[in-house]
User: Fold this.
Amino acid sequence: MSRPATESHDPAGSDGDGTRGAYPPPVRRIALDRAPTVVADDPAERPLVSPSIERALRPATGRERLRIDELSIFYGDAPKPAVNAVTLPVHEGEVLALIGPSGCGKTTLLRSLNRLIELTPGARRQGRIVLDGEDIDGLEMTRLRRRVSMVFQQPNPFPMSIFDNVAYALREQSRKRPSKRDLLPRVEHALRRAGLWDEVSHDLSRPALRLSGGQQQRLCIARALAVEPEVLLMDEPCSALDPISTTVIEQLIHELRSELAIVIVTHNLQQARRVADNVAFMYLGDLIEYGPTEELFERPRAERTREYVGGTFG
Amino acid sequence: MSTPTLPARPAGGAGAGAGSGANGPRERLRRLRAELRHWRVTDLIGVAAAWVVGIGLCVVAASILGYMLVQGLRYLSLDLLVTQPEPSLNQTRSGGILDPILGTVIMVIVGTLIALPLAVGAALWVVEFGRPRWLARTVESMIEVIAGSPSIVIAIFGLAIFQLPLMSWMSFTADGGAVFGRSFLTAGAMMSLIAIPSIFTATREALLSIPQHLREASYALGKTRWSTIRAVLLPSVRPGIATGTALGMGRIAGDTAIIVVLLGATLRIEPEGGVPLWGTLTGTGSTLTSYVYNNSPAGEGGAPEKAYAAAFVLLLIVLALNALVSIAGRRDPARTLQK
Assistant:
C-alpha cells in the first residue's frame, strides 16, 4: 500500500506544550459531565492534540477543487431562497467549515454539492458548482457522488457486515461482481484510513450495527473514503456522538485533510475552530463572512459574525 | 427466591415465615392490596373488567385448543396421515387425509409464490416511488378493498374469470368444450389475493420505518435507486416481509370458500394431463379445510372423527405458521436499524 497506515501518525511528538494536550471540554449539549474524564481515563484513545498547532505549520491551501458560484437553492414556492447567491471556493488539502444558526442553509448548501438536494421534492437550484473545471450538472450523477462523497449526521451503516458496508461502496454498477478476495485490500485500505482497521480487523463479518456509535461513524467515513473521493462532505458528523468519539473523528478529519478537500457543517463553534482551515459563516441563506479560521474567530469583520462567534445569538 | 433483592422490608407476618422471602407471592399480594386501597372505585371496576375479559379470551382460546387436542388425538393416527382418502360411506374404508394435507401444502406454496412478488413489489413502488401520488393512494385503498372482501366473493369472481376460454391453460377444458376453471392454479391465484394485503402492509410499514438518511447514504455513494433497493432496503425489511408472509400463509391454509368453489371438490389430488408438476397444478384436489367441511357433522357429514383429526392437523399447521410469525418478528438486534 502506498499510503502509510494512519495509526502510526502521532502529532503528540511534535507538540512540546504539555498543557495543550488537554482540550477545553467541548461545549456540547450531551454528556458534559463526562468530558473531563476523556483525557485521564482512556489510555487507548489517541493523545489529544489541538490540530490548530499543526495547521499553523502547514503551507497555504492547495489548488481549487470545487467552486460554488452564485449558488441559490429554493424550496417549493417559498420566495426566499434557502441558500442565496453563495460563492465559495474549496481547496485541495483544506477543511472548510460551514457554520451558522439552525436553518441558515448550510446543510442545504452541503447537500447541493453532490446533488443530493435533488432528492428533496420541490428543491430548485440556480448558479453553478464546478468540480475541477467541470460543471457538476454535466457529470453523471453516480460518478459525481463517487468523487464527492458524504458522511451524515446520524451514523448510518447499512444492515450488513462491516466488510460488506465498505465493499458495497466499492462494487461498481457492473454486471461482474468482484470477489471478496479482490476487494479485501481496498476494504482494508479504507478502514485503515478511517482509523478503524485495528478495532475490527479480527472479524470483518460482524454486523456493522453491533459497533459502537463512534465506530459506526468511522465505518461510514471508511465507506465514503472507499470510493476515493476528491471531496468529502460531512454533515455534523459528531453531533450524535459522545466526546471521546468526537475527539477521535476530529483527529481523523485532521489526518485526512492532506489527501482530500473536506467540507464540514457544524453547529459546534469549538469544533470548527479546532478542525477547519477556512470558515464560512452563513445566516438566513446568505454567506456573511468567509475567511481563515483564526481571523474569522479572532477578528470577525461583519457585525453578525462577531455576535455569533461571541455567543450573542445562535 | 435466590435473586439478590433489596434489604428485606419488614414483612407483615404472613409472608415472612412461609419461606418465600421478602419478594414472595404473598408479599407481592400484600403490596398490591395496599396500593389498591388508594384507587378510585371506577378504576377498580375498570381493572377488574379488563382482567375478566382478558382471562375470558384466554379461556375461549384454550378450550378451542383443548377440545381439538382431545378430539384430534383420539382419532389421529399415523395411518390416517399417510393414506389416501377413499370415497366411501363406510368409515373403515374411507381412508386417510394424505391428499388434503398435500393439497393444503400445495395451496399455501402456490398462493404465496404468486402473492409474494406482487405484494413486495407493490409496497416498494408505493413507498419508494409512489408517483403520481393519487395512483399510490389508489393502490393502497384497492389493497384494503381486497383485504376486506369476503373470500367467497373473491372465489366466485375467480370462477367467472377462470372459466373464460382465454384462461383455459390454468385449468382444463372439459368434454363439450367448457373451461372447467377449477384447479390448484386458479384457486392459488385467488388465494394470493388473500395473502397480498398482509404481506403488502408488513412490507410497507417496514419500508416506512427505514430512516431517509439510510437511503441517502446509499445514493451518496453513487448508487442507483435499484441497487439501493436491492442491497440496502430489501435486507432491512426482510423481517417485515417474513412476518407478513407467514400471516398470509396462515390465512391461505385456513380459507375454505375459495377451496370449495375453485379447487374442484375432488377428494383426491387428480392431476390433469401427463406433465408431472404442471398436471397437478392444473388438476383438482382438496385441502384440510374442504375435507373438514365435507366430513364434519356441520357440513355434509359422514365422518366426524376424521374431520376432527383433520381439523386438529389444520390447527397445528396454522399455529406453526403463527409461531413462525413471532420468530420472524423477533428481530436480530444487530440488524435492527436505529431511527
Q: What stands out?
A: The first strand of chain A starts at residue 64 and ends at 75.
